[in-house]
């Protein structure tokens, strides 16, 4: 069997590497139009940082895992084509700022229709609005070669930073297909691939629309938990309650559960906001404005939380940060990834720069040019924004330190040494609640945490 995956990003690369690892008899080729990215997948320096991924890729690459820019050639050879291209929020025209931009999905469907020379199963791996399978089916069915295509939905639930773990031992695999004999056969083929390493009772099969919708709903529910606890963090700060204690107390209720209740500076990442906006746009398109408003508020609280964080720094520094140095520790949207898409750090840096602070960022995995481009826009320049080579350099001479990403190395810094190199009073704001604030106060820091007394 030959599998081709179009899109060699955070999803296409790791998911296909795992299939190749677990199914040595299947040839898996990941293709992308981005030649630089493909070249990186073929070197020792993979284009994405993901714990454990190097080992998986090294075991399979060259054996039955390949990375190539030959999209047309691999489409011809493939029995199954996964589509893992990006589906960003549309930035133009109808639905701008909310609807999913499906231009890459459509372009892939047209490329498949053009180059296919045999029947194929097409698998939606990208996150897309409900009914996208209809559009793909209509485009590929219009080929003039009499070929047959089955479109399946197989959304991906991996989280960055834990992708290898999530792919090795997924909570579930979801496969949606048309409820016809041909659709059932295609679903069975895909089930048989995952069943090589995933217990059969964890492979859920549904109709196409349930599968497509479940992906958006899963992300909406996860993000909603974060916005819920973040909204409560503000009330904790006002009342003297401790948000971690509240999260622990409610999370012990097995109906609520302990996961995804970590209050923070705000959720980031390429998907939560995008997918909720996509969901709200769908709701409005189907005449459900109340449902749309409910989910929109999840994003609203998140925006508010990010701004609240930046405002608190300004307030703690006597309502002016002009020309004061602020150290921002962490720029990735979470630890163990080099991904900065929609990272809360971007908003925080911009807000502080707008107050004319001198912002000095350090992140262990994000390169300086990316920090600058994300904050100021491509080609943007602002001498107030600098990037340090390590946390100590970032903090030296700073009036305040903001912990924005929960990198493990920030837990074990020598804070007494850092304190000594800061003007007084020195302030530290832990946006991830990873530090012992009482210990920092003993050193002499003024402190704040999210939802902390
Ligand atoms: P990405 O931007 O990292 O990768 C997408 C890749 O597709 C890019 O390298 C791009 O060059 C390529 N591409 C686009 N159009 C192409 C075309 N016509 N031909 C060949 N290559 C093309 O995106 P990602 O983070 O991997 O996300 C992909 C999809 O998976 C999105 O829909 C996203 O919502 C979803 N998803 C992402 C995650 C995640 O953790 N990042 C998790 C679950 C689902
Ligand atoms: C998320 C989902 O967890 C995945 O299941 C999904 O496949 C993926 O989106 C996607 O569709 O792209 P990801 O964004 O990679 O994964 O990472 P998460 O661990 O979900 O974290 C998202 C953001 O929420 C991060 O900024 C993180 O710091 C924040 N977060 C997470 C909190 O603030 N508190 C928490 O308790 C958990």
Describe the structure.
Helix content is 43%, strand content 14%. It has 17 helices and 14 strands. The strands form three sheets. It has a six-stranded parallel beta sheet, sandwiched between helices. A six-stranded parallel beta sheet has the order 11-10-9-12-13-14, sandwiched between helices. Helix 5 packs parallel to helix 6 (132-141), helix 9 packs across helix 11 and helix 9 (208-239) runs parallel beside helix 12. The longest helix has 32 residues, at 208-239. The protein starts with a strand and ends with a strand. The site of uridine-5'-diphosphate-glucuronic acid has 20 residues, from helix 9.
Please count the beta strands (DSSP E, at least 2 residues each). 14
What's the overall geometry?
globular
Small molecules (ligands, ions, cofactors) in the structure: nicotinamide-adenine-dinucleotide, uridine-5'-diphosphate-glucuronic acid
Q: Helix count?
A: 17
**SS-based class:** alpha/beta
| Biggest sheet descriptor | 6 strands, parallel
Instruction: Work out the radius of gyration.
Output: 24 Å
Are there runs of 5+ residues with pLDDT below 50, and where? none
> How much helix is in the residues?
40-55%
Give the mean pLDDT.
Answer: 97
Strand order of the largest sheet: 3-2-1-4-5-6
Strand content: 5-15%
What's the end-to-end separation, in Å? 59 Å
């Amino acid at each position: 069997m030959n599998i081709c995956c179009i899109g060699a990003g955070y999803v296409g690369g790791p998911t296909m590497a795992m299939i190749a690892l677990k199914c040595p008899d299947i040839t898996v080729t990941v293709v992308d139009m981005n030649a630089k990215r493909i070249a990186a997948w073929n070197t020792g320096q993979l284009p994405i940082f993901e714990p454990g991924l190097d080992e998986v890729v090294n075991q399979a690459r060259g054996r039955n895992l390949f990375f190539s820019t030959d999209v047309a050639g691999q489409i011809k050879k493939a029995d199954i084509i996964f589509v893992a291209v990006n589906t960003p929020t549309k930035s133009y025209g109808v639905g701008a700022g909310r609807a999913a931009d499906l231009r890459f999905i459509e372009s892939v469907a047209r490329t498949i229709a053009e180059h296919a020379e045999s029947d194929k199963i097409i698998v939606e791996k990208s996150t897309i609005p409900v009914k996208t399978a209809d559009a793909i089916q209509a485009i590929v069915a219009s080929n003039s070669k009499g070929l047959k295509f089955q479109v399946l939905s197989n959304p991906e639930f991996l989280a960055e930073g834990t992708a290898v773990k999530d792919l090795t031992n997924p909570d579930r695999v979801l496969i949606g297909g048309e409820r016809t004999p041909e659709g059932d056969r295609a679903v069975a083929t895909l089930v048989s691939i995952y069943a090589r390493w995933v217990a059969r009772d964890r492979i859920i099969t549904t109709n196409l629309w349930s599968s497509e919708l479940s992906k958006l709903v899963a992300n909406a529910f996860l993000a909603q938990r974060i916005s819920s606890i973040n909204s409560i963090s503000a009330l904790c700060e006002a009342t003297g309650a401790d948000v971690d204690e509240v999260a622990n107390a409610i999370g012990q209720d097995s109906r609520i559960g302990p996961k995804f209740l970590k209050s923070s500076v705000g959720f980031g990442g390429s998907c939560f906001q995008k997918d909720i906006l996509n969901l709200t746009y769908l709701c409005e398109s189907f005449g459900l404005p109340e449902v749309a408003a409910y989910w929109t508020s999840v994003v609203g609280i998140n925006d508010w939380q990010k701004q609240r964080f930046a405002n608190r720094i300004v307030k703690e520094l006597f309502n002016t940060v002009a020309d004061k140095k602020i150290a921002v520790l962490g720029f990735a949207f979470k630890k163990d990834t080099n991904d900065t898409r929609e990272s809360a750090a971007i908003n925080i840096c911009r807000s502080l720069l707008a107050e004319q602070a001198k912002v000095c960022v350090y992140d262990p995995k994000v390169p300086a040019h990316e920090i600058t481009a994300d904050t100021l826009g491509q080609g943007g320049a602002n001498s107030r924004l600098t990037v340090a080579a390590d946390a100590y350099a970032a903090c030296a001479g700073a009036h305040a330190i903001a912990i924005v990403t929960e990198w493990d190395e920030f837990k074990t810094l020598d804070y007494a040494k850092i304190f000594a190199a800061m003007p007084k009073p020195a302030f530290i704001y832990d946006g991830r609640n990873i530090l012992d604030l009482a210990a920092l106060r003993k050193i002499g820091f003024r402190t704040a945490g999210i939802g902390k007394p």
